[in-house]
Amino acid sequence: MKHCLIIGGTGMLKDVSLWLIKQRYHVSVIGRQQEKMQVLMNNADNISQLTPLIVDYTNYSRFTTALIESQQTNGSFDCIIAWIHGSDKRVWESLIQATPNTKNVILYHIKGSSSYLQDDQTRNFMPTNIIYHEVKLGFVVEANNSSRWLTNDEIAQGIIEAINQGLTEKHVGVFEPWNLRP
To answer: Looking at domain 3-180, which of 3.30.530.20, 1.10.10.10, 3.40.50.720, 3.40.50.1820 is its CATH number?
Structure first.
């Protein structure tokens, strides 16, 4: 059974977590809130395919330990789906430290719309065994030129499409005209 880590898998990525379980993955989910984790657990088709990890990824040592322990129990990660706010390089260093370099791991880096304008260097410091994919989240322009942020369902569907199609870069929503963003 393949093992996937989802960082932020109890909020907007909850449906991605549930979908991967239906695809027969073992899914380790990083989340900070017990209540949201419980909702995820209650909705999982097969709870034995889910490892809940209540930890804040900015607690670097605890984050690294949780990742290592999950892999000791469930096997090394085959894929990682990471919704990491900001560009704190220490979070990525912790993730890389906990990921064995003995096999290829597919990483889907989920990025908010403001990253569209930033020169994010995350891809540049990934080791060669981490195959970097990027999913950028934009917004929706409505018919009357008003706009809104993407819904959790739209975000999840975009990520699932990126996984199914093996896309190295996926845009969900639009990024232009930038002045119309919500």
So the answer is: 3.40.50.720
